[in-house]
């Protein structure tokens, strides 16, 4: 199939009014529509997916200016904060050992949401509805406003910025006063109680308040009214959707995304809320960094027989995270000599973290073998931050071919990583945890170009190589 532009698809799907800006955008991003990919699953509802700061990103054409990208040093620091947050939640719940409860491994950390992490997966959805006319007796409505949201598989409460909001953004603000289907959640309702101590805020005027705290700063959070409205993801049916309507989005200064679409395993997430309509499954394919190919996001069940499949592991006290178990890693077909016990803690799948974290025992073996295969290239100093430690100088190299890396999962199924996920800024795109007992993190660099299926009902995670 030929992929077309995300905004153009939304206009075709929903009949949203066009504008000169939209027309200009469609022309300026025509190059992103000329690539073919494997067709997304036919069951469910899907939308195009693109990287937040990539060449197919939509918002930059509306602003007419290049989006500021963080330095590599800042990116790596923020990436470590993300990983520290996941490890800390597991440690505080008693689900993981070997994790320091005192705080981040990064000294003097940046606030987690000072900017969104570089090149995260982003989709556009339609939120809310507006009356077609004031005298429409049947109270029919049309779709609401397009919202650009970051996909997050390691959080539970979706939220968007709502008008009035002091922070500027590219998207039209979702304005609850203009949506005929907006309904704040009452304080005494089961939906409000479901937020629990982790996400609940105060009660204001009888309306339930939520608060999502960002890691490493008690003062940094998204907070506001917990509410319901109609949500459309792609051409499928609208669902009644609970989300945080944020009027106090502290320290998120990125104007090119309106919020976060949480896909974690908790009852508040989009994945859980959409299950009655689409089934307990979703998948996505994140395009390679710098690629002009678009990915896709799918709500709905598909047969896991089409994928390299492995059991989905869950934490009893932290249902947010989806986990798998690696049994081994192979480099150019050579299985690393790593005891299976090193992988016992499993690995959490995270669409927002970039660099995959491995148990130190496994990482040391991977690094040694990788360096052997890359001996023809001169070594380069690692970047600041200490996260990446195996880097090369490819000056003058006509063609760089890193060794093939494969992940061997439980039940012996093997996933070959895309070559673009092996090197990152000319460095091996893996890093070590501090302890073998800490769960690994499979980041989006290693997931890119791979469709990742979360078959929650079937208890399976699936991978399909080369899907975007």
UniProtKB/TrEMBL annotation:
Residues 1-21 form the signal peptide. It comes from the Eukaryota. The active site is at 152, 350. Keywords: Signal. It comes from Urochloa decumbens. Residues 134-464 form the Peptidase A1 domain. Belongs to the peptidase A1 family. Pfam families: TAXi_C (PF14541), TAXi_N (PF14543). This is Peptidase A1 domain-containing protein. SUPFAM superfamilies: Acid proteases. The lineage of its organism: Eukaryota, Viridiplantae, Streptophyta, Embryophyta, Tracheophyta. PANTHER family: ASPARTYL PROTEASES (PTHR13683), OS06G0118700 PROTEIN (PTHR13683:SF330).
């Amino acid at each position: 199939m030929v992929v077309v532009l995300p905004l153009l698809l939304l206009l075709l799907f929903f009949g949203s009014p066009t504008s000169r800006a939209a027309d200009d955008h469609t022309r300026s991003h025509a190059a992103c529509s000329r690539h073919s990919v494997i067709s997304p699953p036919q069951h469910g509802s899907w939308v195009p997916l693109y990287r937040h700061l990539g060449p197919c990103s939509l918002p930059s054409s509306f602003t007419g200016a290049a989006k500021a990208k963080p330095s590599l040093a800042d990116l790596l620091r923020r990436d470590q904060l993300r990983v520290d947050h996941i490890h800390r939640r597991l440690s505080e719940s008693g689900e993981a050992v070997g994790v320091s409860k005192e705080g981040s491994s990064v000294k003097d950390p940046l606030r987690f949401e000072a900017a969104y992490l570089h090149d995260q997966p982003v989709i556009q959805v339609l939120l809310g509805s507006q009356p077609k006319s004031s005298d429409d007796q049947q109270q029919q409505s049309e779709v609401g406003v397009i919202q650009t949201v970051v996909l997050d598989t390691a959080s539970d409460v979706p939220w968007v910025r709502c008008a009035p909001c002091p922070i500027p953004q590219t998207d039209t603000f979702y304005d609850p006063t203009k949506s005929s289907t907006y309904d704040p959640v009452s304080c005494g309702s089961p939906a409000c109680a479901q937020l629990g101590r982790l996400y609940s805020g105060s009660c204001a005027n009888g309306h339930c308040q939520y608060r999502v705290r960002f890691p490493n700063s008690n003062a940094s959070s998204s907070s506001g009214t917990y509410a319901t409205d109609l949500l459309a993801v792609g051409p499928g049916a609208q669902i009644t959707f609970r989300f945080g309507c944020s009027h106090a989005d502290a320290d998120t200064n990125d104007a090119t995304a309106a919020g976060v679409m949480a896909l974690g395993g908790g009852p508040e997430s989009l994945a859980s809320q959409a299950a009655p309509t689409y089934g307990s499954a979703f998948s996505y394919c994140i395009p390679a960094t710098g690629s002009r190919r678009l990915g896709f996001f799918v709500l709905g069940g598909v047969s896991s027989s089409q994928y390299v499949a492995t059991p989905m592991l869950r934490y009893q006290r932290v249902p947010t995270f989806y986990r798998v178990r690696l049994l081994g890693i192979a480099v150019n077909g050579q299985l690393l000599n790593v005891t299976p016990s090193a992988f016992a803690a499993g690995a959490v799948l995270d669409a927002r973290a970039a660099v995959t974290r491995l148990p130190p025992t496994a990482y040391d073996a991977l690094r040694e073998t990788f360096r052997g295969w890359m001996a023809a290239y001169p070594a380069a100093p690692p970047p600041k931050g200490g996260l990446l430690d195996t880097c090369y100088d490819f000056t003058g190299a006509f063609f760089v071919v890193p060794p093939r890396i494969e992940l061997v999962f439980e039940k012996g199924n093997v996933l070959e990583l895309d070559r673009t996920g092996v090197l990152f800024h000319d460095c091996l795109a893996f890093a070590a945890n501090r302890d073998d007992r800490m769960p690994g993190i499979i980041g989006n660099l290693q997931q890119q170009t791979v469709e990742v299926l979360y078959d929650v009902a079937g208890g399976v995670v699936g991978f399909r190589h080369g899907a975007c």
